[in-house]
Amino acid sequence: MKDDSDSTYEVVLAGSGGQGLVSSGIMLGEAAILEGKNVTQTTSYGIFQRGGLSIAEVIISDEEILYQRVQDPDIVLALNDDGMNLYASLGEKGIPIFYDTTLVQKQEGENLYGYPFTEMANKLGHSGMANVIALGAVVAKNRMIRVESLEAILGRRFTGKMLEMTIKALYKGVALVTE
Amino acid sequence: MLQETGRKYLRSGVLPHMWCSGCGIGIMMGALLRSFEELEYKNKDIVVVTGIGCTGKLDDYVTTNALHGTHGRALAFATGIKAFKPDLKVVVLMGDGDCVTIGGNHFIHAARRNIDLTAIVVNNFNFGMTGGQASGTTSGGKITSTTLYGNPENDIDISALACVAGANYVARITPYHGWELKQYIKEGLMKKGFSLIEMISPCPTNYGKYNKMENPLQMLRWLKEKGVSSEDYARLGESEKDEYFVIGKLCDRDIPDFNTRYEEIRVRALSS
Amino acid sequence: MKQEVRLIQGNEAIAEGAIYAGSRFYAGYPITPSSEIMSECAKIMPKVGGIFIQMEDEIGSIAAVVGAALAGAKAFTATSGPGFSLMQENLGVAIAGEVPCVVVDVQRCGPSSGAATKPGQADVMQIRWGRHGDQSIIALCPSTVAECFLLTIQAFNFAEKFRTPVILATDEVVAHERQNFAIPAPGDIPVVNRKPPTVSPEKYRPFDAEEDGIAPLAVYGSEYVFHISSSMSGPDGVTNSKPDNIQWKVDQLNRKFEIHRNEIVLTKSYDTDDMDVLLIAYGATTGASRAAALEARKNGIKAGVLQLVTIWPFPDKEVEMLAKRVKSVMVVEMNYAGQVAGEVQKVIGSHVELKRFNKYNGQNISPRDILAAL
């Protein structure tokens, strides 16, 4: 577990290509930049544009980030079974693992937080909102950045009805953790 | 009265030129330099781009700007020049090795892109500089130093390829037809878009040696006799067609060239 | 004016750096992991008065770049190992013709088609020796997004100043990572342009080097009419294969890099003042080496890092100076043969222990990998 003096957060978003994980990682990174933090975002993916296991990583820190890749995740979001299988065991070490119960087999274990992100997104009217809901939960859980910073980034990316929906989605995610 | 024309585009002290007696490259050079003069081009506005081979030596004879590149890639070098500076007159000189053997892909794409270059290809049916090996334009059955028992492959029709690939202007001629040669070069230079002038001029020294065409006079007679108009060609019997080739303008159209269309792209980009 | 901090990808930073440096011509052919540079240029070039052209292959791409450069453009292309192999012959034209241009090689895991989305650093020798004949070249290696931007400008500046192609040798890790970076305001970073001729047009010869070893370069279409040739040619650019001329030409192509060696060779060192162990890294392995060195110090091992920003010409003096002060040197790189380690070995001989840390499975080298090897 991290001590309070460590300002560095390492985030893993694992799922399939095409699920929007890289976009989520970028939004998280951009939100951290609004708070004056250093950010490194990397992606590892297969050779195809779609499918397979794709992992987006984000490191957020007040310090200079020397090594680009996540070594010890502080929080994980899994959006497919492959991603879950890879990271679920970290829950026992105190790392919160969020996962989408609409897409991933439900698992029992310490620090495993399953929520039906995709189902919730569909209810909001757009399956693409699943990432935003999940991001809201992740950020509310580990407080690496303020939710308002993420909201500000959504404001830059979306307009009109779509923006309304994404902000609603963000706070739905936050509520999962805070309520 | 004899008139010396095209001289100001020719470097001093380079004559007699290096090409063999009976080879058409020198005649093509004369026609090209006279075309420059008749069109009143300034040396500084011309870039002659060459590849490698007998035709690729021509840049050393001119007083214009020049870029002597690599085998088969002259069109790609020229594309960069013309795309960046559309006001330049960019002339690409190639042999059949450059044009359709090692560099065939650039040729197809330069025509497809319809970039405003004037390409002149001297088709001598073989690799002259390296000792008369077969090229992409050596006909089936012909003898060269690498097809000693006859060529098992077929030849490419350079002009037909340019037409279907999208060139705006295509003409085929021979060094026997000196006036038409110059005329086609001038038309090619003036045409916006990709122009190709193919000059059929069998290599007397290598190809000629193997295929009974080594005598320059015989060669000229052969060119005069075998180069026919498309109408005459159409009247030939199927068995005769292999022995003849069509000369004249084969394609002439005005599809907007690369640079013109790129300007339209710029406008769209700026308003997006 | 304070510039906005953005989350920028390495490849995007290269495209932005090129534009900042004044590049207005890109010709290329798509290949992973370099394609984002091409897409960015496709987007930006038409808006800034530049030309973007997608060529039929990498051979044509570098040829078009050379042509455009002679027509006055700051021109560049980007590719990865397989495409870079295809460019070698025409890169030779740029070297022989002393044509300023930039080629980005985003190195990926090889050999052959290899693993296109995985990183590697095995093009080090291809960059230096991939072409036939006697020649030299400059190659720079960025290790962060900021360096992608700044070294792209540096690459153009070197290309223009020394009339040479410059290779920006990056890798999949640095190319695809995103980091916070503020693009500097125009004018904040110096931009260098080629030295134009000062003699009268009749007297101009494109390879008449001045005292600094560099010949002024005109542009096609100006009053200065000139000739550039891939064939062995004289100061006037016209074919000349006489022994004296050949020797003069080869000397000129190599000597300029010797004259300006200290300006070209860039390195950065970290914690090298009191070290016992020297880590040598370049590109993607730099950050991991620095993190490993900091961690090693916590465990009582005094480690320092030398980052080779320029890999060609090789920073021999810089390596030698630091290697003299340590018990062992470890070269950290993503290739099997230790392509940089071999160069380090040439410099340090057998006086200092040389360790090689090589990883070539398409995965990053992590600080933990390095610590374990220490």
Q: What do these coordinates show?
A:
The complex is a heterotrimer of chains A (179), B (272) and C (374). Chain A has a single domain, classed as Pyruvate-ferredoxin Oxidoreductase, domain 3 (3-Layer(aba) Sandwich). Chain A has six helices and six strands. A six-stranded mixed β-sheet of chain A has the order 2-3-1-4-5-6, sandwiched between helices. The relative contact order of chain A is 0.16. Chain B has one domain: Rossmann fold (3-Layer(aba) Sandwich). Chain B is of the alpha/beta class and 272 residues long. Chain B is built from eleven helices and eleven strands. The model of chain B has no long low-confidence stretch (mean pLDDT 96). Chain C folds into three domains: 178 residues, Thiamin diphosphate (ThDP)-binding fold, Pyr/PP domains (Rossmann fold), CATH 3.40.50; 62 residues, no CATH class; 105 residues, Rossmann fold (3-Layer(aba) Sandwich), CATH 3.40.50.920. Chain C has 13 helices and 16 strands. In chain C, β15, α12 and β16 form a beta-alpha-beta unit.
| Overall number of strands of chain C | 16
The value of Rg of chain C in angstroms is 21 Å
Overall average residue pLDDT of chain A: 92
Distance from N terminus to C terminus of chain C (CA atoms, Å) equals: 45 Å
Indicate the CATH architecture of the largest domain in chain C: 3-Layer(aba) Sandwich
- The total of helices of chain A stands at 6
Strand composition percent of chain C: 15-25%
The ordered string of helix (H) and strand (E) elements of chain C is: EHEHEHEHEEHEHEHEEHHEEHEEHEHEH
SSE topology:
The complex is a heterotrimer of chains A (179), B (272) and C (374).
Chain A: E1 9-17, H1 21-34, E2 38-44, E3 51-61, E4 75-78, H2 81-87, E5 97-100, E6 112-115, H3 117-124, H4 130-142, H5 147-157, H6 160-178
Parallel strand pairs in A: 1-4, 4-5, 5-6
Antiparallel strand pairs in A: 1-3, 2-3
Chain B: H1 25-38, E1 46-50, E2 65-68, H2 74-84, E3 89-95, H3 96-102, H4 104-113, E4 118-123, E5 126-127, E6 133-134, H5 158-165, E7 169-173, H6 178-190, E8 195-200, H7 207-211, H8 216-226, E9 227-228, H9 230-235, H10 238-241, E10 245-246, E11 248-252, H11 258-271
Parallel strand pairs in B: 1-2, 1-3, 3-4, 4-8, 7-8, 9-10
Antiparallel strand pairs in B: 5-6, 7-11
Chain C: E1 5-9, H1 10-20, E2 25-28, H2 35-44, E3 51-54, H3 58-70, E4 75-79, H4 81-96, E5 101-109, E6 115-119, H5 124-129, E7 138-140, H6 145-162, E8 165-171, H7 172-176, E9 178-182, E10 227-229, H8 243-259, H9 261-264, E11 267-270, E12 277-281, H10 285-298, E13 303-308, E14 310-312, H11 316-323, E15 328-333, H12 339-348, E16 353-358, H13 367-373
